[in-house]
């Protein structure tokens, strides 16, 4: 277990950081003057935060389902990154960067079979 925990550490940390930044981003976007234009960003960041949290938890538990969750996490982080990249706020840009890194970490752990 200790060996796997070390193997997963970078991905766990990336997931946890991304979850936190996604929550901050969603919260900030709810305060936008034109909240309706932020609906997709808010939805994606909330979903991404939830999935990143779950992925980190299952990696910590060395779950047999962790790699499947890593694949889903990678996909959702990429979508969230694309959405947040289009925004002008600092928190959205920070969220996009975290999502990009998290997707890369997940990809290294659980590459999708072509």
Number of domains: 1
| Average pLDDT over all residues | 91
Can you tell me the overall shape?
A: elongated
- CATH domain class: Mainly Alpha
Q: pLDDT below 50 for ≥5 consecutive residues: which ranges?
A: none
- What is the annotated CATH architecture? Up-down Bundle
Q: SSE order, as H and E?
A: HHHH
Sheet of most strands: none
Distance between the termini: 29 Å
Radius of gyration: 14 Å
Provide the CATH topology: Substrate Binding Domain Of Dnak, Chain:A, Domain 2
Protein name: Four-helix bundle copper-binding protein
InterPro entries: Csp_YhjQ, YHJQ-like
Please outline what is shown here.
The chain has a single domain (8-109), classed as Substrate Binding Domain Of Dnak, Chain:A, Domain 2 (Up-down Bundle).
List the helices and strands and how they pair.
Blueprint: H1 2-29, H2 39-60, H3 66-85, H4 90-109
Helix pairs in contact: 1-2, 1-4, 2-3, 3-4
Characterise this structure.
- There is one protein chain.
- By secondary structure, the protein is an all-alpha fold.
- The chain has a single domain, classed as Substrate Binding Domain Of Dnak, Chain:A, Domain 2 (Up-down Bundle).
- It is 79% helix and 0% strand.
- The chain contains 4 helices and no strands.
- The protein has helices at residues 2-29, 39-60, 66-85, 90-109.
- Helix 1 (2-29) runs antiparallel to helix 2 (39-60).
- The longest helix has 28 residues, at 2-29.
- The protein is elongated.
- The N and C termini lie far apart (29 Å).
